[in-house]
Each structure stands twice: as structure tokens, then as C-alpha cells.
Specification:
By secondary structure, the chain is an alpha+beta fold. The protein has 2 domains: 8-99 and 169-270, D-Amino Acid Oxidase, Chain A, domain 2; 117-168 and 273-328, FAD/NAD(P)-binding domain. Helices cover 30% and strands 24% of the residues. The strands form 3 sheets. An 8-stranded mixed β-sheet has the order 2-3-1-9-10-11-8-12, with helices on both faces. Strands 4-5-6 form a 3-stranded antiparallel β-sheet, with no helix packed on it. Strand 4 (122-128) and strand 5 (131-137) form a beta hairpin. The chain is globular. Bound molecules: flavin-adenine dinucleotide. Flavin-adenine dinucleotide binds at residues 121-122, 150-154, 158, 173, 175, 224-225, 266-269, 291, 293, 295-299.
């Protein structure tokens, strides 16, 4: 919750949070949803001032969040370095197992008669008289009145198939995983620099990329992460791994006793204004976007699913959706099809 931009973005995340509580029971997999609370680690005076302002905006939206001094922060997380200045704390930050969540959504969809066709690469989108009529894939053609582009960091490539430009760019994130050790973290932690880097790419270069730290149920620590524009390259780099380890160990010195067992990298679907793209594409009837969630696609998945389902069924939606509309990108569309 704390890494969400105050405004419509945070409101969407709060709606999602409410849905997660029910999903733990509703989905057929154990999604390991836990509202354990989270802290934003503050290391400099400038960050302290910036976070003071940031949390005021978050509080105005209704997020339960407050500032902690060093003593209070160490009470919550005794393994943190006493060199930090303090932190923020929100009891609403939560974690979830993203693999079990994805499988849970897929199994629940199948239970409701969805057909999932794996290993079918979309090669083209058929259109007629300015509306979609189907998709061409490596496993054949499928007729469809509605096509939803939910291709994550590749959503821009899918839109290009129908000549529509959508600014979704892959932004690489690297993660370091440690062995399953004793519990050393009770909350999800990110650094104030992480928030700055998320919303201002130029800051990511100047101020470093910030860190995130979580301990999974079985004791593995997940240490992240980088935010890099390197095309569709999903490799780990020595410099990225070094930076993550150096920055996390400075804040959590007990990491010295943990062994790194693996690293991985993924691509976040970045959009220039930090908001996802949700809704119908004006210039092509039946073509919808549900992509561009950057580092929030897991957190926002329940609310995205709900909103898209309602939109496709033509039902009333209470959330204001203009800020997420594909129309907000001036150079999109314009070309006629069919
Ligand atoms: C290091 C890292 C840390 C992250 N941490 C968090 C976090 O803490 N919280 C959070 O909420 N989010 C986090 N994210 C972001 C989250 O993973 C993404 O926002 C989310 O996965 C996006 O979901 P999506 O369904 O839109 O896209 P994806 O999960 O990328 O799914 C898109 C799918 O489309 C398929 N596809 C693409 N092109 C085609 C084609 N031509 N034909 C057929 N299929 C196609 C792909 O194979 C893929 O399966 C993190 C990401 C990274 C990399």
C-alpha cells in the first residue's frame, strides 16, 4: 500500500486490499495472504522531509500510516541497523504468494467454464469494419467480439499488431533470494529511495534504486530490486546483484549470516505516468487494454479483474476510470482498421 502514488492509484490499491481478504477463502489455492504491515526505511534528513509530505497525502486518501523514530522502528524490526533515521509504518501493507495467486485465479476461472489455452502465441488480431473479430495464434484462429490485451510488458507489441501505439515499456527488476533462515523480518520493508525511483526514473539513476526486503513464509528472504530499461532482456547482472546486496546489508546487517541461493529477474510493464491502462480503445471497437501495472500488478490484480469484468459486461462502475483510460496517451490510435 505504501508504495502506491497517493490519488487514484492508492484508492485502487485500497479496493484491491479489501478483495484480497475474501480471496484467501474464495480461491482454491492457499495464496498466503498476510496483512503483516510494512515500513518505509528513512536514511537521510532529505528523505525524512519527503516522507513526511508523502504520508500526509496518503493519509488524506484514508491510508493508516505514521512516522516512527529510530527507537520505535527498532522496536518493530530489531534487526534493522541503528544507522537509519527512522521509518514509516502502515498496518495495511500485505504480502501474498504470487504464483499461488495466479494459479488460484486460473483454477477459479476454469471452475466458471473459462477455457485456458496454453502455449498459444498471439500472432495477429483480426478486424473488420473497425472492430475486432478474432485472434490468430500459433494454435489456430479464434473468433472473438472482444479482445483484452493483458500481455504485461509485451502489451505494446500486441497493440502494434493493430497499429495502435501504447506506451508500455519493459522495466527490468532483479531479485536476490537467500536460504530459508530464522525469522529476521516481521514486516515488508522498502526504502524511501525505492518510492522515489519508482515514480521518477531520473532519480533512480541519481539517488540509487532503493531496496525492498521481505521474508517468505518458509524463511527465504527476497531482496530487491533494480528498475532498469534494457529492452526485453531478463538476465541478472553482477552490478545489479552487488547493488542489491550492498544496499540491503547496510540496512539489515544480519544478512551477513544468510546465503544467497539464487537470483532472478522479471520485466515490469512500465507506463510514463505510473498508472495502469484499463479500458476500451476508442479507435477499435471490442479492443480493451488491461496492462501497464509496473510494480503493482499483483497488488492490483483483484481490482483489475473486477473492473474489467464489469466493463466487458457493460455494468455500472463506481470507480472513476478516466485516469486509467487508454485515451490519455495522445499518440495512440488514430489509425482506422478493417
Ligand atoms: C522484480 C519484480 C518485483 C515485483 N514486485 C511486485 C510486488 O511486490 N507487488 C506487485 O503487485 N507487483 C510486483 N511486480 C510486478 C508484477 O509482477 C507485474 O505488474 C504483473 O506481473 C503484471 O501482470 P500482467 O498479467 O499484466 O502481465 P504478466 O504477468 O507479464 O503476464 C502477461 C502474459 O502475457 C503473455 N504474452 C505476452 N505476449 C504474448 C503473445 N504474443 N501471445 C500470447 N501470450 C503473450 C506472457 O507470456 C505473460 O504470461 C514485480 C515485478 C518484478 C519484475
Amino acid at each position: 500500500m505504501q508504495s502506491k502514488k497517493p490519488g487514484v492509484h492508492l484508492s485502487l490499491a485500497m479496493e484491491s486490499l479489501n478483495r484480497f481478504e475474501g480471496l484467501q477463502k474464495e480461491l482454491p489455492t492457499d495464496i498466503e495472504f498476510k496483512k503483516i504491515g510494512g515500513m518505509v526505511i528513512i536514511e537521510t534528513d532529505a528523505e525524512y522531509r519527503a516522507m513526511e509530505k508523502f504520508i500526509k497525502e496518503q493519509q488524506a486518501i484514508g491510508l493508516d500510516v505514521r512516522l516512527l523514530d529510530l527507537h520505535q522502528a527498532l522496536e518493530k524490526e530489531p534487526f534493522l541497523s541503528p544507522s537509519i533515521l527512522g521509518s514509516t509504518f502502515s498496518p495495511l501493507d500485505a504480502q501474498v504468494n504470487p504464483i499461488n495467486l495466479t494459479l488460484g485465479f486460473a483454477l477459479a476461472a476454469k471452475r466458471n467454464h473459462a477455457r485456458i489455452i496454453n502455449h498459444a502465441e498471439v500472432l495477429g488480431i483480426h478486424t473488420k469494419n473497425n472492430r475486432v473479430t478474432g485472434v490468430a495464434t500459433t494454435r489456430g484462429n479464434f473468433d472473438a467480439d472482444i479482445v483484452v490485451n493483458a500481455a504485461g510488458s509485451m502489451a505494446g507489441l500486441i497493440s502494434e499488431l493493430v497499429g495502435i501505439s501504447m506506451p508500455v515499456h519493459p522495466r527490468r527488476g532483479q531479485i536476490v533470494v537467500t536460504h530459508a533462515g530464522k525469522p529476521v523480518l516481521a514486516h515488508c520493508l522498502i526504502s524511501a529511495k525505492y518510492i522515489a525511483a519508482k515514480y521518477d526514473p531520473s532519480l533512480a539513476d541519481k539517488a540509487g534504486q532503493g531496496i525492498s526486503m521481505e521474508q517468505a513464509d518458509n524463511g527465504n528472504l527476497l531482496l530487491g530490486s533494480t528498475r532498469e530499461f534494457v529492452g526485453f532482456n531478463k538476465e541478472n547482472t553482477l552490478s545489479g546483484i552487488r547493488r542489491i546486496i550492498r544496499q540491503t546489508a547496510a540496512v539489515l546487517p544480519v544478512l551477513e549470516n544468510f546465503q544467497v541461493i539464487r537470483t532472478f529477474a522479471g520485466l515490469r510493464p512500465y507506463t510514463p505516468d505510473g498508472l495502469p491502462i484499463l479500458g476500451p480503445v476508442r479507435h477499435l471497437n471490442g479492443f480493451f487494454m488491461a496492462a501497464g501495472h509496473e510494480g503493482d500488478g499483483i497488488a492490483l490484480s483483484p481490482v483489475t479483474g473486477d473492473l474489467m469484468a464489469r466493463m466487458l459486461l457493460g455494468q455500472k462502475i463506481h470507480t472513476p476510470l478516466d485516469a486509467f483510460s487508454p485515451d490519455r496517451f495522445e499518440n495512440y490510435g488514430g489509425k482506422h482498421h478493417g
